[in-house]
Write a structure and sequence with these properties.
This protein is α/β, with parallel strands linked by helices. Helix content is 43%, strand content 16%. It has one domain (3-237): TIM Barrel (Alpha-Beta Barrel). It contains ten helices and eight strands. It has an eight-stranded parallel beta barrel, surrounded by six helices. Helix 6 packs parallel to helix 7 (169-176). Bound molecules: the ligand O=c1ccn([C@@H]2O[C@H](COP(=O)(O)O)[C@@H](O)[C@H]2O)c(=O)[nH]1.
């Protein structure tokens, strides 16, 4: 398959490849089609298998979300974003709590270095956290209020969207509007295991609530037939 022969992706699903075994990941990827899902590479696989693994997925024609959640001083974050973008990824992210200057500097560096820069999004509140976890780090707002506050800062910083839970999608669409990507992990098809996720939603409800993209990891990667689960999720959204 050549890159030019691959159709654009028709699905909002981003499959989170969280494996410690590259062969297992590739075995799954071989069963997937770039027109039916995007892929996410996170800290585990990037640390183990590095840029070459990411480039191999891009070469296969997949839109790749490099989920490294950069959070550092502005200059360091900007240089990390430029390095990530040089791998040809479709989307990358920083933590919104790094602040406006950090986010603006990263966005500017991408625009200055790439004709077609990848989408840059800000992580708001991790979907594994609820109000009691927020209280533990000194945040007394509700998860929804904290997400709204950080998402507003992300928008003001000129980024393309946020990572949030689908539970906040309606609130963010009302507050920020349509021209802003809402990338939502914590997606759980009916009956699937929550794992360590706390703010969850089904794929259909997430899309109906205004999510742009659905990040789905274990419900697909740990399934006996991952391609069939992906097919069912895509069908549930049609
Ligand atoms: O708030 C966040 C940000 C990122 N993630 C990542 O998404 C996937 C979710 O995987 P599941 O197996 O579907 O729970 C995982 O790679 C996380 O690192 C998130 O869950 N929440």
């Amino acid at each position: 398959m050549t890159l030019s022969s691959i159709k654009a992706c028709n699905s909002p699903v981003i499959v989170a490849l969280d494996f410690n075994d590259k062969n297992k990941a590739i075995e799954l990827v071989e069963k997937l089609n770039p027109s039916e899902c995007r892929l996410k590479v996170g800290k585990e696989m990037f640390t183990l298998f590095g840029p070459e693994f990411v480039k191999a997925l891009v070469e296969k024609g997949f839109d790749v979300f490099l989920d490294l959640k950069f959070h550092d001083i502005p200059a360091t974050t900007a240089k990390a974003c430029v390095a990530a973008a040089s791998l040809g990824v479709w989307m990358l992210n920083v933590h919104a709590s790094g602040g406006q200057v950090m986010m603006q500097t990263a966005k500017k560096a991408l625009e200055e270095n790439f004709e077609n820069p990848p989408l840059l999004i800000g992580v708001t509140v991790l979907t594994s956290m609820d109000e009691s976890d927020l209280a533990g780090i000194g945040v007394t707002k509700s998860a929804a209020e904290q997400v709204k506050m950080l998402a507003t800062l992300v928008k003001q910083s000129g980024l393309d969207g946020v990572v949030c839970s689908a539970q906040e999608a309606e609130i963010l669409r009302d507050a920020i509007g349509q021209n802003f990507e809402l990338v939502t992990p914590g997606i759980r098809p009916e009956g699937s295991d929550k794992g360590d996720q706390k703010r969850i939603m089904t794929p259909k409800r997430a899309i109906d609530s205004g999510a742009s993209y659905l990040v789905v990891g274990r419900p697909i990667t740990q399934a006996e037939n991952p391609a069939e689960v992906l097919k069912q999720i895509n069908a549930s959204l049609a």
